[in-house]
Amino acid sequence: MLQPDADDPPARLGEWLTAAGAVLDVVKPYEEPVPATLDGYQGVVCLGGAMGALDDAVHPWLADVRKLLSHAVSKRVPLLAICLGAQLLAAATGGQVRRSPAGPEVGVQLVAKRDAASGDPLFADLPWTPDVLQFHEDEVGLLPPTALLLASSPKCANQAFRVGDRAYGVQFHIETTPDVVLGWAAGYPEVVGGVRPGVLDPDRLTAGHEDIREVWQPFAERFVRLAAGELTIHRSLPLV
């Protein structure tokens, strides 16, 4: 598991993956080298962070993270990339990242699955409008050429996508706790300045995170099964 920012820990997602049988090796690229290969690993998770996906001048290790994510795609190693992670995945595989023209998304919100999600091994069993936690200013403005769009929202078209048959990017967060989100809000007042009153109310966040758990803990369990080779991958056949 790649953790690009100390302020975005594995938190509940780490607990869900471990409970499903995964053994986590958490790598913090700002403190230690990023693995050059994925030998010995069955899957990869890349968490979020406050930096931009192309802020190499300030965070030179971002290039190594993008290289590893591209390596995961080419080697067909199951990958789950979250928020900044999704942007890094997109940038590494031919997509484009930009500052969201619609402004930041913040708080517990809904995203809507696209029709293609009905045939996806991880997304098929999700409700059509699952709860997620949003906290981002940047977005994937253009999907990679080989990507399949899986979910959208009114302010951000590319909320979830798959590159190849087992690399997933989600613009939203599923790993957070209410305390983590409140810490972000305190640390980045410019992001939450235009948020509607009550969106970051602790009780509302607590209730929203329970809704998120109900949906996304089984999703995390399916990702562990995918990494273990226990989920069937349905490949699309070319049409002539």
Automatic annotation (TrEMBL):
- Where does the sequence pass through the membrane? none
Any Pfam family hit:
GATase
Q: Which GO terms describe its cellular component?
A: cytosol
Q: Which UniProt keywords apply?
A: Glutamine amidotransferase, Transferase
- Origin, by domain of life? Bacteria
* N-terminal signal peptide: none
Q: Which GO terms describe its molecular function?
A: transferase activity
Q: Which residues form the Glutamine amidotransferase domain?
A: 27-178
What protein am I looking at? GMP synthase-like glutamine amidotransferase
Which organism was this protein described from? Saccharothrix carnea
Give the classification, highest ranks.
Bacteria, Bacillati, Actinomycetota, Actinomycetes, Pseudonocardiales
